[in-house]
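Title: Prediction job returns without error message
Component: structure pipeline
Severity: low
Priority: P3
Assignee: unassigned

Description:
Job completed but the reporter wants confirmation the result is attached to the right record. Sequence as submitted:
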Amino acid sequence: MKTGKMKTRKTTDFDRWLSATYGENGSFTALVVLVRIEEPQVLPLASTFLNIVGDEVSWAEVAALFAGARQTWDGAAFFAQLDADGPLENGEARGRLRALEQRLDADRLVINQGDFFDTQGRRLKVEEISPN
């Protein structure tokens, strides 16, 4: 017997981003960089890529996946990538990820070119600090 109550999923900024990006592009590859935030610094910790083939995954599931990194992280930056047929081939994704890591090493503001979220799936932005 059903009670008529529907299970509701908490919608985060990440969930909305994923739904919009998938709706706009179809399947894609996400380059992901996990970071630690130690103000005033944003420190890259680990990176990977994920092939996104639907928008059913929730932020909670993605965050649980990142627990496998065995690093304490404060934010995750996602960079949606695709080729003419959708997700990238693994070799191409690895190459683009390495290039992204090099760009981030040179300039942390590159994070803002992607979509950046905290551990709760809320949108973040890296701000440049002006010298006094």
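Comment from assignee: result matches the submitted record. DSSP finds three helices and five strands in the chain.
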